[in-house]
Amino acid sequence: MSAAILEVRGLNKSFGAVVAAKDINVNVMPAARLSLIGSNGAGKTTFVNMVTGYLKPDSGEVLLDGKPITGLPPRRITQAGVCRSFQIPQLCETMTPTENILVSTEIAAGGAPHFFRPARRRETLAAAAEMLERFGLTEFANRPVNELPGGVRKLVDIAMSLAMKPRVLLLDEPTSGVSSEEKFPLMDKVMAALAGEKAAAIFVEHDMDIVTRYADRVLAFYAGEIIADDAPEDVLSDPAVQKYVTGTAR
Amino acid sequence: MIRVFGLAALGAVLAIVAGALAPAWLVFTMTKAIAFGLVALGIVGLMRGGLVSFGQGLYYCAGAYVSGLLAARFGVSEAALLLLIGAVTGAAAAALVSPLIARYRGIFFAMLTMALSMVLYGVLAKATPIGGTDGFNVPRPSFGGWTPGPESADLALYVVAVVFAAVAAALCRLYYDSGPGLVALAARENELRVEYLGASVFTVTQRNFILAGGLAGLGGALNGMALGHVDPFFSYWTTSGEVVFIAILGGYASAVAVFGAALIVELVRSFSGQYFPESWQLFLGIFLLLVIIFLPRGFGSLWAKRATGAKGAGE
Questions:
Q1: Is A78 left (phi over 0), alpha (psi -120 to 50) or beta?
Q2: Which of A191, B45, B75, B236 is the most exposed place for a label (fewest CB within 10 A)?
Q3: What pTM value is reported for the model?
């Protein structure tokens, strides 16, 4: 199991009497497509928040390539290679998708800042255009994002994260707020963009059709615990999952 | 880069020709406008990072006092050197307080900057060895060893001011269009996202703040020389407020617009001060209202259509 990119060991987190994470253990392999399911309050977002540094776990460890990143601020965790997208897209609203991607690639480039080198250079613009094309966003490239529809904004948000070239990409409810007929095309685009990336993708999802179609592994959360961790069909046929998560138990 | 500096050089030449043809009172007014424009240019940098400082008077005053004291007490008279000293002083003072101030945002940032500037005002007002509330006189500077007579002193200082302003505006334009400049704009729009992309909003703020301090110190040193006098009112909150006014008038899209805005404010002040001494602020207020209503992103938005796509270069 040492080949795992991301290892989560014995993570615990409580808010007063509410246990949001109880002994969470997960190993994530390169190029994994891992889905987190569970009802509201089950601990999915707490997991994402602890891995990305928004919350500090009470105990336990998060390792990226064997190196601890537990409790680092989000910025340092991103620099280490764990990036996230947001349930409500977090964009630079008056900028265009191209400019939003340029912000990502500029930060991702790292190194000493070049104060007198234009941000819009042939190579940076080409890279941004290529990233937008992967998400099928070319036609929206030069319109301010605050004028774009919800599904497109979601994709721009995810594209910004992917432009960081992360090792692990966490997607917080990529299809929430998107109409049901848009969900599959949106996920198709995300998965197409991820194809060929070694990055592991972890997505929080409520729609079981999405989970079965796009995940190769599912973690089911209930009351802060992982109650199932397996291939989608096995998890979704698990009686406990059917009782507590999907509500399909007969 | 060549284009930006080319435009800056062209702007500088035009401004110098205009100065050579202008009456003496206007040259003096334009020099003052450049001084305020430089301070406002610093605020524009902060605005691009999503912040407004109401205390640039501190760095403006620090630059004016240190360069003024060197001129008055230690016989340093070279204008360009004094201006550079003013800029370094302003930047150093800003660097000193930046670790504290860059933690704050919005109104807290604005109020804290203002409070600090009023502290300097209070200290200088009590500092009788350097003039207390009266301040002190700054001797006329020299230019490459040449000390002009009273008839050409204003024009000589104006030329130096134009050169400094052109270089400052060109460098700011390059910075605005650079990667770090884009990240600063992103921080203005969405700090959370910028942090989650792995950049430090604190560092962005600190950088813009030190830059603004340097520009304010440069403006202060220039105005000290132009007026031939400095006093603690350089650090008073109304001075800072006036520069914010100029920055808003100019808008954050352009590095040139602030100089135009500063000139307009100086002209409105001169004329209405002469004809309506009790109510000149009223005219300035009406003028600002019109700009806010019809050009909410400032004058600069007239020729720089999009903040991030701005192509205008510096005067």
A1: alpha
A2: B75
A3: 0.91
Chain A residue with minimum CA distance to B187: A92
Residues of A in contact with B178 (CB under 8 A): 113-119
Mutation target for A interface from B182, B211, B305: give the one with most A CBs within 10 A. Answer: B182
Nearest CA-CA distance, residue B176 and chain A, Å:
8
What radius of gyration do chain A's Cα atoms show? 18
Q: How far apart are the first and last CA of chain A?
A: 36
Taking only the tens place, the pLDDT of each residue in B196-246 is: 999 999 999 999 999 999 999 999 999 999 999 999 999 999 999 999 999
Tell whether B296 is within 8 A of chain A (Cβ).
Answer: no
The closest CB to that of A74, out of B1, B175, B195, belongs to B195
Give the span between the Cα atoms of B51 and A147, in whole angstroms: 25
Read off the pLDDT of each residue in A188-205 and give the average, rounded to a whole number.
88
- Which residue did the predictor score with more confidence, B33 or B301? B33
- Please count the residues of chain A: 250
- Chain A neighbors of B192, CB-CB under 8 A: 90
Give chain B's radius of gyration (CA, Å): 19
Residue A172's alpha-carbon distances to A175, B242, B309, in angstroms, are 9, 46, 31
Lowest-confidence segment of A16-25, A55-64, A190-199, B77-86 by average pLDDT:
A190-199
Closest-CA distance of chain B to residue A174, Å: 16
Report how far residue A177's alpha carbon sits from residue A99's, in angstroms, rounded to the nearest whole number.
24
Q: Whole-angstrom Cα distance, residue A136 to residue A250?
A: 41
Question: What's the pLDDT at A213?
Answer: 92
Residue among A46, A236, A173, A224 nearest A247 (CA): A236
- Residues on chain B touching A106 (C-beta within 8 angstroms): 179-180, 182-183
Q: Do A117 and B200 touch (CB under 8 A)?
A: no
A86 CB neighbours in chain B (<8 A) are 193
Which residues in chain A touch residue B1, judged by CB atoms under 8 angstroms apart? 116
- Tell me the pLDDT tens digit for each residue of A29-75: 999 999 999 998 899 999 999 999 999 999 999 999 999 999 899 99
